[in-house]
Write a structure and sequence with these properties.
By secondary structure, this protein is mostly helical. It has two helices and two strands. It has one domain. A two-stranded antiparallel ribbon has the order 1-2. A hairpin with a 4-residue loop joins strand 1 and strand 2. Helix 1 runs antiparallel to helix 2. Pfam families: DUF2905. This is DUF2905 domain-containing protein.
Amino acid sequence: MDSIPKLLIGGGVILIVAGLLWGVGGKYLQLGKLPGDIVIQKENVRFYFPVVTCIVISVVLSLGMYVIRWFTK
């Protein structure tokens, strides 16, 4: 039963950090418009694939899961 409070605390910390990054970091780090994201524009078609944005989000989520796993030990 000790792991549930640790899990809730870890999840809360992750949500707080994500909220701060979203609010403050959104001005400086514009996800979706990073160098390396693929944008192809033709006459009526626009193809957009955020490769680097997906990598950044994956790294952040992986670190978050690591923190949650650390709190549940």
